[in-house]
Amino acid sequence: MTMFAYICLGSNDLARSAIFYDATLGVLGYSRCDTSAESETSWNGWVGWGLYEKEGAVQDALWICKPFNGAPATVGNGGMVALWAKSWDQVEAFHAAALAHGGASEGAPGLRLLYNPDFYAAYVRDPDGNKLAVVCRGFTARQ
User: Fold this and answer.
1) Mapping DSSP to helix (H, G, I), strand (E, B) and coil, where does residue 130 land?
2) This prediction's pTM
């Protein structure tokens, strides 16, 4: 079991965010969560990627939604979501997809020796300004 049931990030433009996350999470092997068997009204305004099973029995997903209170989505200072990559190539593809789909770089792909000799990561902001990291561990040279 992972630590988190799910992670939710706010968006001011779900269509734009869906394009961004389809591209970036797609290179990591994630597809959209299938909520078609559930009430459409329960998922109106939500888009998710990862593992999700009917009626919430299993969740391990990243969701994007408009804030419930109707106020604009804002970015948390110091907040970041880190995602696993299986290879350095996936880290690089994620970073490139983010930039090609409205994201901004917060750190190009590379080893972060400050953290560990095998910590290969890239950092981006999504179109709403949410900070994301993608991390590959276990290699100290290109595999």
Assistant:
1) coil
2) 0.90
